[in-house]
Amino acid sequence: MSVQKHIIRGFAAAMLAFVPLGHALAQQSDNWLTRLFQPPSPSSTPASLPDATSAESGWSGQSGASGNPLMTAEAIRAAAADFPNCIERLWPEAARRGISRATFEQFTGGLTPDLSIMDKLDAQPEFTKAPWDYLDVLVSDERIARGREVLAQHAPTFAAVARTYGVDPAIIAAIWGVESNYGTLGGGRPVIRSTATLACVGRRQDYFRDEFLSTLEILQRGDVPADHLVGSWAGAFGPTQFMPSSFKRYAVDFDGDGRRDVVDSIPDVIASTANNLKTDGWVAGQRWGYEVVLPPGFDFLLADRSRQLTLRQWENLGVHRADGASFREPDARAYLLLPAGARGPAFLMLQNFHVIMKYNPAEAYALAIGHLADRLRGGGPFLRAWPRDERVLSLDERYEMQQLLARRGFDAGEPDGMFGPRTRLAIRNFQASIGAIPDGFASSDLLDRLRK
């Protein structure tokens, strides 16, 4: 489910990018999370005159926002016209993977591209949602209650999977809840058509050729019936949203029926998700992280993913658990995360947080998974309040902040509106230069200071 397992690895760190493609883009036919956080089509993108190709496919007929030459309206139309030839060119590689000609023709004969995907592929993620708004959606009372029901309903399976893979049942249930709201939002597009479209049209063809061929392998083996192999526009499917290539690596037949069915077999869904996490380095018995309290005069330059210290070392610096309890694994290494800067909650993130981010590479997503898992076990809300009065920067303002930082000599990376480690470091260095708390948080007040 990702390109490594996901398509987009970047995230806006101070405000956190919420919806990289892959697991998190696999919900409902057009993904409820995507619709929640996705902006309207950029006004700078010129509209094309409607034609039969766009009208029949549901595509807007517009060029993509990325500026990639494969995403111009003309390039999309040309690739769509060449679609049958493109699919046929993939046959030799399919044969090398053991796919029979009969299977290939059965699932590609008469296949047409779903060009409506092009409008989604090149939509820029919106970074105007605060982390607290994201968590409000994903860690709601309803989702907590339903998650506890799921854990109780499938308790024997969760227990058996935990014994086999060493992964906490609450984490699996939380992924299930966040990815598809416990299977109620799974997506309705045929995976074979989505992956075939993206393998032949648009700017991610190299990646999606493997996803398309992996889909054919699933169909060849018969693990998931063709009419049940449906999912998001990006091709993720099942309650915990596997990309086809991730299915190949991680799916297991836990119910012993001879098929690895991560759509309809609950034991296979739970075990495959656990196997994914274990293979990616899950540490059995370890938490994902802790909410912590920072001491007066704390050096906020330590709040960096590259600054990993043991929990004992953090404690020696005056960092303690917010609930007053002691750290359970004092020798485990962790980094300090401040999703909302010095005014919001602070967290020490352990190895298992990194593993969750491999499932979906956004800190806000991993924080939601960890927090929902805690709530499913009976834990309470975070103890420190979020700064809900803080105005979140628009995407244009994020571009502007990166450009202004660069003009002042602070390397924020290529301006892209996504605040990764380089931008956060540049923000912290600028904050330190003006005597502000160097917490790396991109506030509107900070942008005003840069404009002066």
| DSSP summary: helix tally | 21
The unreliable regions are 1-50
Strand percent estimate: under 5%
The third-level CATH topology of the domain at 52-123 and 187-279 is: Helicase, Ruva Protein, domain 3
In oligomeric terms, what are we looking at? single chain
Which H/E pattern describes the elements? HHHHHHHHHHHEHHEHHEEHEEEHHHHH
Largest sheet: 5 strands, antiparallel
Spatial strand order of the main sheet: 4-6-7-3-5
Identify the overall geometry: globular
Mean pLDDT: 88
Q: What is the count of β-strands? A: 7
Share of helix, binned: 40-55%
Class from helix and strand fractions: mainly alpha
Q: Termini, distance in Å?
A: 44 Å
The level 1 CATH classification of the domain at 52-123 and 187-279 is Mainly Alpha
Radius of gyration: 23 Å
Keywords:
452 residues; mainly alpha; 7 strands; 45% helix; globular
In short:
The chain contains 21 helices and 7 strands. It is about 45% helix and about 5% strand.
Describe this structure in words.
By secondary structure, this protein is mainly α. Among the domains are: 52-123 and 187-279, Orthogonal Bundle (Helicase, Ruva Protein, domain 3), CATH 1.10.8.350; 395-451, no CATH class. It has 21 helices and seven strands. The strands form two sheets. Strands 4-6-7-3-5 form a five-stranded antiparallel β-sheet. Strand 6 and strand 7 (346-349) form a beta hairpin. Helix 12 (191-200) runs antiparallel to helix 13, helix 13 (205-221) packs across helix 14 and helix 17 packs across helix 18. The radius of gyration is 23 Å and the shape is globular. The model is unreliable at 1-50 (pLDDT under 50).
